[in-house]
Amino acid sequence: MPNIKARTGIIFHPDYLKHNTGYHPEKKERLLSIMSHLKEIGLMEKLELKEPRPATLEEILYIHSKEYIEKARRYSQHGMKLDPDTVLSTDSYDVAFLAAGGAIKAVDSVLDELDSSFALVRPPGHHATPDRGMGFCIFNNIAIAARHAQKIGKKRVLIVDWDVHHGNGTQDAFYDDPSVLYFSTHQYPHYPGTGWLDEVGSGDGRGYNINVPLPAGTDDSGFITAYEEILVPAAREFGPDIVLVSAGQDACKEDGLAQMRMSVEGFAILASIVKSIAKESCSDKVAAVLEGGYDLNLLARSVAAILNVFMGKEVGNKQHEISPPVKARLDEVKKVQREFWHI
Ligand SMILES: [Zn+2]
Fold first, then answer.
1. Which of 78, 155, 325, 339 has its CA 20 to 30 A from that of 211?
2. Rounded CA gap, 98 and 30, in Å?
């Protein structure tokens, strides 16, 4: 029934613009560019716009230590940096609560009435570890949302992280936890330095952390093959109750902060693969949360492409040949992960 569109929402709050980073790639113009593009192409009127509430302190404590939260509050009050990359203004602490609340709202809205949602939040979150903010991130929005989903009964959570940087904070948060499967494709070697393929989880969580470190220059074909040949079979076996996406679009070629070669259409295909996993295992429920993406034009266009897929647009999956170094890397990942999954 091609006329019936899946109900898709975005989560946004104007206060996200108040996190003032000054001259910095993670700036308010990122969200302004996305919002104006969605209006310009007529997508906004087809989307449900949801306003988030700030996360509660108790919810931030799902992931972060009391000491670190207090440090973030103090540093924000004084406008001090958490690390050389992670700038805080006086509003940043409150905005970070609202960003985590946006990710929570993305989960709540797909469990209530929507099929898919995309939380257009800042600051991003996937580098924030339980006791440290870094890499533009204050609180780990997606990790907090994953725990929130579990509190309301969605026991098994799949987090797909296609941001070009490894989500070290998310990996840390769930490293020994078999109820959250973390899958990340990222440029390697690159910031933050973690994410090699032998980081597979520990204790009961062994096997529930899948890192696909890709060489600089990897294009759509390399990413799509990683998703089709590694993520899909592992996710099928895992059987998530909800699928969350750390949606950073900084693997776009010409992004500026990395050296990958993804296209806007490539992100639409990744979104369709993730959507098909959700269709099979959890009634189509996907909640995406914005991470990186620093070229204002490519970021806006890729977010729109992902939203179109969430709304039911079919994308052709072009035949692809992958470069020998990427193929070799994917083979290495499979070899390691075969201990845990039928890949
Ligand atoms: Zn990134």
1. 155
2. 17
